[in-house]
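FORM 12-B: Structure-to-Sequence Request
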């Protein structure tokens, strides 16, 4: 579970930050709602990882 939360948090935050850059280079409109959801999910994964660090 610990591996899943850390992998999910890192990959979601990285993709939320790099997605607008990729869309900008392709000259397409950026889907901000998707980036915000990915960022929020990444933050939630890392929050749960820190909150339950003793139990995992």
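FORM 12-B RESPONSE
SEQUENCE OUT:
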């Amino acid at each position: 579970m610990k591996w899943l939360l850390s992998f999910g948090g890192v990959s979601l935050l990285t993709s939320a930050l790099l997605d607008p850059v990729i869309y900008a280079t392709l000259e397409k409109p950026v889907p901000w709602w998707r980036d915000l959801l990915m960022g929020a999910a990444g933050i939630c994964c890392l929050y749960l990882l820190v909150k339950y660090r003793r139990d995992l």
